[in-house]
Amino acid sequence: MREYDVVIIGGSAAGATAAITTRRFYPDKKVLIIKREENVMIPCGIPYIYGDVGSTAKNLIPDAILEKNDIDLLIGEASVIKKDEKFVEIQNGEKVKYDKLIIASGSDPLVPPIKGSDKDNVFIVKKDDKYLDSLLKEVNKAKDMVIIGGGFIGMEFADECKKNRDINISVVEMLPHCLMLVFDEEFCKQGEELIIERGVNVITNEKVEEIT
Ligand SMILES: Cc1cc2nc3c(=O)[nH]c(=O)nc-3n(C[C@H](O)[C@H](O)[C@H](O)COP(=O)(O)OP(=O)(O)OC[C@H]3O[C@@H](n4cnc5c(N)ncnc54)[C@H](O)[C@@H]3O)c2cc1C
What pLDDT, on a 0 to 100 scale, did the predictor assign at position 30? Predict the structure, then answer.
């Protein structure tokens, strides 16, 4: 069984930062990140894959940063934690012993219970490169796109997908304004005006009932 002083589950923003910080403060410790996927997306860059960044390959958290900091990597999904015996089991049966364990397994997107959400050509914003690649192909082919939700991610997607594409995009937001969970009304209106100027259709105060 492999043994580490610090084992971190998840190699995205929290996991990578925890590993590098551990290395900085405890240079003698053996540190391992267990990450589910070979390629970890920079989550904040995902909307930009569809515009300025241009591909998932240019939006990865580079392993080189971790290797440079002498942090070991194990690709696999941690499926069992045995707290008393202090080990983590990977889906393939491999076991890793730890002294301290950090769980940085993050979040998956919530899919609202809208009728028709499971239909073809309906996508969610997953942090998965293959899924996002397939979405890029569809965006490049699309003539009409509807984005449900006018928060940060919805607005960023609309703005980026509109760049250099002949595509009709509508953002549907159930609150009176886009970005309203984070900004006051004056600022939200400015954001809406900007995105409308760039050719995006904005529908507010309306809740999506069904996807047909
Ligand atoms: C589209 C988008 C845009 C965003 N834009 C911004 C922004 O502009 N500014 C900002 O501050 N924040 C932004 N955020 C939020 C920010 O990205 C998150 O707060 C951040 O990613 C959280 O990092 P995390 O490491 O906690 O979790 P996550 O990024 O969710 O990473 C968790 C990782 O753990 C892995 N994992 C989970 N379970 C296991 C397991 N059992 N074994 C091994 N690995 C596992 C996952 O596969 C994943 O790689 C954005 C998020 C998204 C989705």
Answer: 98
Q: Is the CB of 40 under 6 A from ligand 1?
A: yes
CB-based burial label for 169 (10 Å; 0-12, 13-18, 19+): buried
Residue 133 Cβ < 6 Å to ligand 1: no
- SS3 (DSSP) at 122: coil
pTM over 0.85: yes
Is the CB–ligand 1 distance for residue 208 below 6 Å?
no
User: How far, in Å, CA of 68 to CA of 13, rounded?
Assistant: 17
**Tens of pLDDT, residues 192-209:** 999 999 999 999 999 999
Q: What is the pLDDT of residues 44-55, one digit of tens each?
A: 999 999 999 999
Distance between CA atoms of 95 and 101, rounded to whole angstroms?
13
Ligand 1 center from residue 197 Cα (angstroms): 31
User: Ligand 1: which residue has its CA nearest to atom 3?
Assistant: 44
3 lines ligand 1 (CB under 6 A): no
161 lines ligand 1 (CB under 6 A): no
User: Which residue's C-alpha comes closest to atom 12 of ligand 1?
Assistant: 44
Q: Residue 175's pLDDT band (boundaries 50, 70, 90)?
A: very high
Q: Measure the CA–CA gap between 134 and 167, rounded to whole angstroms.
A: 18
- Interval 176-202 mean pLDDT: 97
CA 62, chain centre distance (Å): 15
